[in-house]
Amino acid sequence: MRAVIQRTLHARVVVDGEVVGRTDRPGLLVYLGVTHGDGPADVAWTARKIWELRVLREERSAVDADAPVLVVSQFTLYGEVRKGRRPSWSAAAPGPVSEPLYEALCAELERLGAHVERGRFGADMQVESVNDGPVTMLLDSPR
Question: In chain numbering, where does the motif Gly-cisPro motif, important for rejection of L-amino acids fall (predicted)?
Answer without folding.
Answer: 133-134
